[in-house]
From TrEMBL:
GO terms for biological process: regulation of DNA-templated transcription. The lineage of its organism: Bacteria, Bacillati, Actinomycetota, Actinomycetes, Propionibacteriales. This is Ribbon-helix-helix protein CopG domain-containing protein. Residues 66-100 form the Ribbon-helix-helix protein CopG domain. Residues 1-27, 45-68 are annotated as: Disordered. Pfam families: RHH_1. InterPro entries: CopG. It comes from Acidipropionibacterium jensenii. It comes from the Bacteria.
Amino acid sequence: MTKPTTPDWDRMADWAESQAPLTDDSAPMLTGAQARQAGRQFLRGRPNVGADHATGAGQSRKRATRLDEQTDAALVARARREHKSVSAVIRDVLRNELAKS
């Protein structure tokens, strides 16, 4: 048997839209129209985090900064601890700090 080099998208889509049981209790399974909608939402790309925060409305600005290794490690650790993306932690920290001024 040869190892496939690309995922079998049709087989995975058929499974996702089937009534197949989950292998664990970690999350509910979506099927049919719900699975298709969730897939479309997933493939749309990153949401806009403008004025209405991830609704697709408004504009979001992209900023870049450099971090030393220690600060970056602390940032990544906090993101993991809070089950958030690094970007979400940066936004939260900035909002909180700027609200003080």
